[in-house]
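User: C-alpha cells for Methyltransferase type 11 domain-containing protein, please.
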Amino acid sequence: MSGLFSKQAAVYAAARPVYPKDLFTKLAALTAHHRLAWDVGTGSGQAAISLAEHYDSVVATDVSEEQLLHATTHAKVRYLHTRDAMPGEDLVAMLGGEGSVDLITVAEAAHWFDLPAFYGIARRVLRKPGGVIAIWGYNYRVSPVEDMMTRFFNTTLPYRDPRTWLYMNGYKDLPFPFDDIGLGREGEPASLDVDHEMSFEGLIGMLRSGSAVTTAKQQGVDLLGEREVKELEEEWGGASLVRKVTFKAFLLVGTPRAQD
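Assistant: Done. Predicted C-alpha cells:
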C-alpha cells in the first residue's frame, strides 16, 4: 500500500486534519508510564508530534519513505522506515524489546495492516500491565458537508481497495482483540469529533490525497477534473470560503488481555 501514498505525500501532509489535543491527553492519562509511544503508519507525523507532548520519546514508523520525507521534525520523535516484509523480531528490537512501549497509536491506517501480525507485535512490545493501544480513523462523515462528501465518495467506489471498507464502515468490523477500557471496543467504536478549519483548496487537496483517487488516476480516470472541482466549489459555497467542519471520527482503545 505504500505506493498509494508516495506520489501525493506532500499533498497528504498539507491537507489532512490535525487531531484534537485532548485526545492525546486522555490517552496519556490511561498509561501507567510515559517513557515511549509508538505511532504506527505515521504518514507525515500528525499524531506523533502530539504524542511528544506527553511521552519522553516517540518512535514513528511508516512503510512509505516518501511520506516520512514530509514528516514534521521534533526533538522527541524518531521517524523510521519499516519495509513491508520486515521480520517481527527486527521490529521488536527496533522498538526497544518486549514490554518497552507504553502507548501504541494508529491514526487512519489500521485498515491497511496485516492485523494478526501487527497485533502480535503490539502484544509483545506493550508494557504489561499498563500498556495501551489506540486506533482511530475518519471517512466521508464530515459535518456540515456530509451530503457533498457522500456524493463524491460514491464516485470513488469502482477504484476502492477492499480494505478501505473497514474505515468506510467506521471500523465497526475491524478486529480489535484487546480488553475494553472505556473508549471504544471491538464492534462498538467510540465517537470522536475532529474540528478543522478548512479552505476549499484544502478540501480538494484532501480528496486528491485519497488512495482511490490515486488508483483511478493510474487507470486514466481523473475523479477531480475541472468539471468535478467546479461542482464541488458550488456546493462548498465558493473557492474563497473557509469553513469550520467536523470529521465524525471513530476510536478503539484497549489494553492487552491477561492471557496474552
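User: Anything notable?

Assistant: The chain is about 35% helix and 20% strand.
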